[in-house]
# Entry
Amino acid sequence: MKTVVVTDSTAYIPEERLKEMKIHVVPLSVNFGQETYRELYDITTKEFYDKVRTSDELPKTSQPSIGEVLNKYEELSNEYDAIISIHLSSGISGTYQAAVSAGQSVDGVRVYPYDSEISCMAQGFYVLRAAEMAQQGVAPEDIVKELDEMKENMRAYFMVDDLSHLARGGRLSGAQAMVGSLLQVKPLLHFEDKKIVPFEKIRTSKKAFKRMEQLLNESASQSEKVKACIIHAEREEIAQKWKEELEEKYPNVEFVLSYFGPVIGTHLGEGGIGLCWYKVS
# Structure
């Protein structure tokens, strides 16, 4: 059985890796008034943050239509028998449900929609592992089983400079955002039950970095091999420095850098930093 992997643009996997692993992407979009830009295709991350700084209103985001996803599946059905379609959390987007609906409509190929229950490079880790297994000829059912096992070990935490983006986008309750702003708290956030919720209230960015490292240490000290990613929103220099510091401390952890692109950046705002990882079995 010939299997291919599809994901959406919020996995933020480097373009060269997408090509190398033959991963297909359906884009989400950001909307500035009447102008719509597809992630990866119509606007770069830098262009997006530059545009946000000069815009009077925050952009809105939109998921791919069922028709767009279906077109991608139909295109792939000419060459593949099965599609593993991995998407950002169904708790913050309807993209996964669009994949489910499109998968039920396409003929000639079996679709396995997968809810990562997360986003960004944490989602990307699932995608890359699935693509690796697909290239090895592993059956799609076994790939999904492996993803479920990864999910048991996946951890991701992040902090943002301004909670109002999450509150206005409906991804965090207004009360939580107001309290954080009043107290100048830098809460650590994470995904729980597919939604973004506060993990711990922390007063300063410095303490937030330290707490994320403590959480990583718990996993790194119990496993021979861990894959991790530092994710940033226009904070590459800070992210790179932190990566170098962590690499010295944790030789058993393989670190990569990634970013919060336009769609996720719409909700988190500029300046966010995150750390995600999973234990490799």
